[in-house]
Amino acid sequence: MKLLLSALEPSSNIHAQKVIKEIIRKIIKESINSLPKEKNTQDKQQKTSQNFLPINLSKIQSTKIQIMGIFDKNLEQQILQELSQEFKQEQTTQNLESTQIASPKDTIANDFINDFISNHLAFTPLFFSQDFSIMGFVDVAKKLPFILKAQKTMLHTAKEADKILFLDSSSFHIPLAKKIKSSGIKAPIYYYILPQVWAWKPWRTKKLEAFFDKLLAILPFELSYYSLEARQSKKIEFVGHPLLDELDFTILESRQSRQSQSTQAKNSQTQNLQDKSPQNQNLRNPTKNIAKHIVFMPGSRRGEIARIFPTFIEVAHLLEQKNICTKTLVIPTFFANKSQKELESIYGDLSGFELSFDTQKSLKEADFAFICSGTATLEAALLGTPFVLCYKAATLDYLIARAFVGLHYIGLANIFYNALCGESAGRGESKIHEELIQGDMSMDNLLSAYNSELERAKNGHFIKCAKELWEYLSTQNTEDKNHKNDDKIPHKKYYGSAQNVANMLLMD
Questions:
Q1: How far is CA 3 from CA 87, 123, 164, 292, 502, in A?
Q2: Which residues are within 8 A (CB) of 187 and not within 5 positions of it... i.e. 6 or more apart?
Q3: What are the Cα distances from residue 151, in Å, to 178, 230, 260?
Q4: Residue 83: closest CA among 12, 7, 2, 22
Q5: Which tens digit of pLDDT belongs to each residue from 284-307?
Q6: pLDDT computed for residue 193 by the predictor
Q7: 3-state secondary structure of 30
Q8: SS3 of 459, please?
Q9: Distance, CA of 257 to CA of 277 (rounded, Å)
């Protein structure tokens, strides 16, 4: 299968990585299941002792997967590492359970996955997603010649593809899909992470239905914006939300348990630490509620960082004066190779911050977070990490967006919670967290929101809303449906979209 992939955003590459990994896993598992069963345990032990990995090599050798297009420069390496680790663990467990002998050498699974990647899976990048780091209308205008060149190259490569998968980035992908269809190319086009027609330009649904063969919705309420014909024909389907593939629900449950056990102790500690002096009885008193570990996420683009992080620094310094917390700055992974001096040229003063390149790990460990708008806000909500959304756009971009987008909220968790509560998505009154936008994103307002959000978390409201979001955004895995009463299938209550998307690409 030749798959033309286009994933321009960092989050899109994470989702693409999960889908491709699932495709490879399914091919390998299918080859395992197609093998005849060994007659007895002695045969199994003999094969294991010979470092035999139970794989139908002839079936795999006939399978070739080529991933072409636009994606992260580290995509291949990340998939290789994850697969190698997962299969190593699975194979060790299976051999121990079936043969009751010592664990096989760790190199078996690793060597096999490396061989499969080398000989049967090829990555052919036309451009790297890092080349498309564009924010706002002004940046788009500056990079227009490059964008047109990229579309021309993708159009030419589409002629070789068996299937095409686009993720997000509607301003790039809708025109490209139109060009592909107009050129008479027959490869089906799948669109995963659809444009937010519920936020603005709902008339785009007609274009989407015309230019794409399959629309893969990650939100249940998205389907209602499309035609009855598209829904009945299953041109558009809800596949689950991709973040649920990356997160573990037990983290939320553990946080709830810890919160319940320590609420009384925290209340007592807060009372003892609170400064009674008049000068601290104002919005800048951060000790009304106390978070021991605070995460700061000012965005991934340089413009966002320049507009947002200076205010974060002010808040962090004030909290530092009170000596009440550890402060972690989350930095995008594509800045990981930069020196301290280069990072300071982007962020400014980094003194007092611990640096992290792992969003999920940081949010898991955090008691509170200040987050620029984006997927990270939904991730924090699903992990049960209380936070406030803070965003400041370039003035022109903000004015244009405000003129066209009539939303009360811009945070994904708030928008989805509106729909969950039966309100219009992004236009309702219910909310999970505070949002401070443009001029409202001041130090005083951030500290006030910090106190109010920690208070809401303390009374259990935030965890309750987070659980409701998990339920709303999940799907049940087909494999588990078929093995409902099989004790060998580990129970997992919530599923995202990667397995569903992989199934569609392999089966359609």
A1: 24, 10, 6, 46, 12
A2: 4, 158, 161, 162, 163, 164, 180
A3: 11, 27, 53
A4: 22
A5: 554 556 778 999 999 888 889 999
A6: 96
A7: helix
A8: coil
A9: 34
